[in-house]
Prior knowledge:
The protein is mainly alpha-helical. It has helices spanning about 5-20, 50-55, 60-70, 75-80, 90-110, 115-120, 125-130, 140-155, 160-170, and strands at about 30-35, 40-45, 45-50. The chain is globular. Zinc ion binds next to α3 and α5.
Amino acid sequence: xxxxxxxxLFQDYRRVWTREYVTNEMPNQLTFLPGGQLDGGAAPNxxxxxxxxxxxxxxxxxxxxxxxxxxxVTLQWLQRHGLVKPPxxxxxxxxxxxxxxxxxxxxxxxxxxRVKAHVIKIEFPSLAHELGxxxxxxxxxxxxxxxxxxxxxxxxxGENPWNAxxxxxxxxxxxxxxxxQ
Length: 181
Ligand SMILES: [Zn+2]
């Protein structure tokens, strides 16, 4: 995906993310930084992807953009759904943020960009591979994709997307979720 396409996608997502989760911390633009690996990051009014992230398949890149944007609205997500961050510390604190960003990202893509969600779903194995194995801040890619698979199975079997997102979100907000990480 070239930078212009990624920027356009960011703008399309931005309209949805800022409508769903009212925030004044979403930047106006996606920033591109040097780096050959798939990577990205987010802070208030700053969302970036590496050039390496643009080299992945379109669906992985589009998921990465949505994931980083979702970090920006995590607190708003908690508030909107009446959830409380679980008392987890150390690497699980980071893991929690990663799972929540994945969940927000896939739910909004599924709800508002359904065709993209179906392509991401087809490419779940390659997404898991690109996300890699667990490190000190990121859970295992396979486990992250398993959570998205669970969401996908729920909505495919007729569950309302909002309810699927909330039920998984609630489980993420229990400390028990992390006992198998
Ligand atoms: Zn992240």
